[in-house]
Amino acid sequence: MPIQIISPAPFVTAADDYDEEHEGGVRLDFDNDGDVLMDEAPRRAGGQAGGIVTPGEVVTDDPQWMRGHGTYLSPATSGQSIISSLAGTISKTNKLLSIRALKFRYIPEIGDLVVGRILEVQTKRWRVDIAAPHSATLLLSSINLPGGILRKRTSTDELQIRTFFSEGDLLVAEVQTLSNDGLASLHTRSLKYGKLRNGVFMTIDAGMVRRMKSHVLTLPTSNGGGDVDIYLGVNGYIYIAKHTTPLTESTTEGKSVSITRLEEEASEAIYSNVNEEISPETRGEIARIACVIAALAKGGVKVDEEMVELGYEAALEEFLQGVEWGGDGEAGKRVVAAALAKRRLS
């Protein structure tokens, strides 16, 4: 069946002129000073309240507003009307109007912690999928190598490049630089970055991960599961794994290991493809945490450290184990509602 796009109705400029039965158009409320107030949700067709606009819909024709991302100026009205170019919600920053997409691909920013998958091994570099419009690049010079972080890369390292990362490997890295066309360059020079193993990989929408000071969480679990590490990639890729003691906490005969020696010892562990033995209790708690994160994302709740902890507590109270409730929408809604209630009370 062909899709018919109906042109939006004329913009309503006064509250008294707005008709509850009016079909189409967007009404923007006014504040006490008579200015257009964008903080309140606009009134849409049929009297339904909501801040969602569709492509081609007029947001406002008041000249006091400036257009931002997700909008364009209408050429038919001498550049006065601001029109949405995508489906999303209206966002206001002072006099700047922009539209936040309901769903979007991850746009890299310098300093972001991301979880990625190796797509291709090239000469002196790897191509990495980070759920962005373009794949990222991880250079051979941007990883830790045996012999220390400052060791010069040689032709032998280039020949052994697949011993570090090969196609399909998962890794956690940081966005180091961005090119003019948006291509991201990653690095794993820190000992908290590198190859991922001993866990499960999952994906959610990139916009559902809240930006935090640290995106690597360690969650103590119950039922004998021990501690679990959670890597919340800003790009929406998440990895949940059995907790491993950071190499920076390693000691030799009661003395701290030097940085050079630490880099040499780290090389053997961080590039291993062999998973450690994981107990059934730990596997069960990893699955429970994965279901909690999926339920939060499906319920439209931003995923951060606080909500993961509260959601996990709610899942324990509901006696939801493993992945048995992962496909149960009602159980997920109960967990999300209980987590939100706990956050309001705290």
Automatic annotation (TrEMBL):
GO molecular function term, any single one: RNA binding
Exosome complex component N-terminal domain residues: 52-93
InterPro entries: Exosome_cplx_N_dom, Exosome_RNA_bind1/RRP40/RRP4, KH_dom_type_1, KH_dom_type_1_sf, NA-bd_OB-fold, S1_RRP4
Cellular compartments annotated: Nucleus
Xref: Pfam families: ECR1_N, KH_6, S1_RRP4
Cellular component annotations (GO), alphabetically ordered: cytoplasmic exosome (RNase complex); nuclear exosome (RNase complex)
Domain K Homology: 199-245
Gene3D superfamilies named in the record: 2.40.50.100, Nucleic acid-binding proteins
Record's keyword terms, sorted: Exosome, Nucleus, RNA-binding, rRNA processing
Domain RRP4 S1: 105-176
Gene Ontology BP terms: CUT catabolic process; exonucleolytic trimming to generate mature 3'-end of 5.8S rRNA from tricistronic rRNA transcript (SSU-rRNA, 5.8S rRNA, LSU-rRNA); nuclear mRNA surveillance; nuclear polyadenylation-dependent rRNA catabolic process; poly(A)-dependent snoRNA 3'-end processing; TRAMP-dependent tRNA surveillance pathway; U4 snRNA 3'-end processing
Matching PANTHER family: EXOSOME COMPLEX COMPONENT RRP4, PNAS-3 RELATED
Family assignment from sequence similarity: Belongs to the RRP4 family.
Protein name as catalogued: Exosome non-catalytic core subunit rrp4
Species this chain originates from: Arthrobotrys musiformis
Gene it is expressed from: RRP4
